[in-house]
Amino acid sequence: MRRAACMMAAGLVFATPAAAQRPIPEECRTGGFFLGCQAWTWNHFTVFEAIEKTAEAGGKVIEFFPGQKLSPEEPGVAWGHDASPDTIQKVKDKLARHGVRAVNYGVVGIPSDEAGARKVFEFAKALGLRAVTTESVEALDTIERLVKEYDVMVAIHNHPRQPNNPNYRVWDPRYVLEVVKNRDRRIGACADTGHWVRSGVRPVDALKMLEGRIVSSHLKDLNEMSADAHDVPFGTGVSDIPAILAELKRQNFQGNISVEYEHLMDRSMPMVAQCIGYVRGWGQAAGGR
Question: Residue 22: how many CB atoms within 10 A of its CB?
């Protein structure tokens, strides 16, 4: 019933302009959070299969990425902000059938030219997304104008530190905070906890630093604190998932948490389901839903 109610509420958003101030429906919570998968977890599969697998693993929301094949029946159709209205409707219908709500899209490059950037925001509007995830800090002037026009949030994502590329700076939460702090409040951070660990950043410290500016999260637990670390089920690694969840709860975080599991990706379902189950159990113990 909750999954069906979640999609009924989502359907209302599909019919109207996306509104960042409108919360994700309460029925879409798992363990107190809006929890699901980043479709990149299922990048060995199609968009349709990613929706199916997200639902099977227990997720109620999904974050898409550009370029994934649409379906086994249409492998030549690529999903993303160049999708036709017919393709977008097919994905909406698939989401509805499986009780999954689309909430985010990225990591996607957003160009500085307004015409190119507008295509990303129009796509977000058509899907009823809450937010878009990017690393295009050089385009923030354009992004900010369109955030105000479309009322779609934008999250700055962090990949790992690149020691040989000092110009890559979004790995550092201090830098992300610096570039967003004087921008519209709907522009903030996508907290990728695994990439922080790979960069030598303690996730809880970064979350505290970015308080009030966290739009979404790619939640990961890693086997070790190193650049070569790989994903493990929540609670079995070094990321301190209980402390991360407690900090997000303290901040009254209202964005989506995407499980992004990038290890054994052709057979990761048991581990992804274990991650979602972990958050569900943690939330129930903490008084969540």
Answer: 15
Residues near 170 by beta carbon (within 8 Å), at least 6 away in sequence? 135, 137, 156, 157, 158, 159, 176
CB 71 within 8 A of CB 118: no
* Alpha-carbon span 220 to 159, nearest angstrom: 13
Q: How far apart are CA 174 and CA 189, in angstroms?
A: 11
Q: For 218-238, write each residue's pLDDT tens digit.
A: 999 999 999 999 999 999 999
Closest Cα to residue 257, out of 267, 244, 270? 244
CA 17 to each of CA 35, 101, 238: distance values in angstroms, whole numbers, following the listed order: 23, 16, 41
Q: Check if the beta carbon of residue 70 is closer than 8 Å to that of residue 90.
A: yes
Q: How many CB atoms lie within 10 A of CB 86?
A: 8
Q: What domains does the chain contain, in order, with CATH numbers?
A: 2-285 (3.20.20.150)
| pTM for this model (two decimals) | 0.92
Measured CA to CA, the distance from residue 95 to residue 51 in angstroms comes to 7
- Token pair recorded at residue 238: 């070094």
Helix (H) or strand (E) holding 218: strand 214-219
